[in-house]
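hey can u check if this looks right to u? its 149 residues, i copy pasted from the old doc so theres a chance i mangled smth
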Amino acid sequence: MKNRIFIIGLLIGMTLLLGCRTGEYKVDLLIYQEMPALLAADTELASNIAKNPDGSLMVTFEKGTMYLYLRTGSDMNEEKRQVAASDAFVIFHQAYMNHPENLKKDGTTYYRQKIYIHTFVEDTELYIIEWELGKENPEVTNDRSGNYM
């Protein structure tokens, strides 16, 4: 009986000491708070992003991934959608690269190694792009723009 109580106490202590792992770093949460304002600051980009009913930009974040929803309309052709997704991802990348808390204590490696963007028009996912921090250019993982008519 004493062993069980000791083991349960040890497990509770370890959980409190280590905390729960959600997949989010402290720097992620700080950047997620800044991003809507950074995206809205670029008026041309903000005009191409879909809006929530409250008027805010339709963009969410989770585990180093930005989920961006582009607006619909006859003037939103494929080129305009690609430029909007690219511009938003560059802003997201710069936020990670310029944030002082993104570097680990050794000062040479980043907490988040890769960031991603998933771009949608309504329910259709068009682009998935990943960018390894420290590299010059991103890599398009998936381009489904042909699926959207």
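The radius of gyration is 20 Å.
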